[in-house]
Amino acid sequence: MQHLSAEDFVMHKAEAWVREHIAQPFDISALAQALNLSPRTLARRAQAAIGMSPIQLVQRVRVEVALNLLRTSSLIFADIASRVGYSDAPALTRLIARESGMTLAEIRRSQNIHRE
Asked: How far apart are CA 3 and CA 24, in angstroms?
C-alpha cells in the first residue's frame, strides 16, 4: 500500500498515522489534526493524490494488514479483526472478499501452500 502514498508526503504521513492507530476507531478529525489539515482539505488531498477518500485509505490499510496476518499467523479471525480495528468480524470478512476476491479459507489455504 505504501506505494500509493509514496509520491505525496502528506499521504505518506497519513498512511503511517493509520498504521500506528490501526486498532482504534477511525476519526478523520484526528488524522487531519495530525497532518495539520482540515478534514475537508485532507479529503480533497487524498482524492487528488491517491484516488480515494481517507476512509477508503483506512479500509485498504486494514485489509492489507489483516491479509498479512491471515497469511503469516495462526490467529483466529476475530483476533485479527480486533487488531485491525474491526469489532464486527463479518464486516471485515466482506471487505476482504471484496478487495481480494478470495474467501478467508482460500487465503489460509494459500498460506499453507506457500509454506510447503
From this structure: 23
pTM above 0.90, yes or no: no
What does the pLDDT look like over 16-47, one tens digit per residue?
A: 999 999 999 999 999 999 999 999 999 999 99
Cell of 72: 503469516
What is the SS3 assignment for 8? coil
Q: Give the residue ranges of DSSP H helices in the chain.
A: 2-5, 9-20, 28-34, 39-50, 54-72, 77-83, 89-100, 104-115
pLDDT score recorded for residue 6 = 58
pLDDT at 11: 94
Q: Which fold has domain 2-115?
A: Arc Repressor Mutant, subunit A (1.10.10)
Which residues make Cβ contacts (< 8 Å) with residue 51, sequence separation at least 6?
A: none
Please list the ranges in the chain whose pLDDT falls under 50.
113-116
CA distance 97 to 85: 17
**What nine digits make up the cell of 113?**
501452500
User: Are the CB atoms for 50 and 73 separated by under 8 Å?
Assistant: no
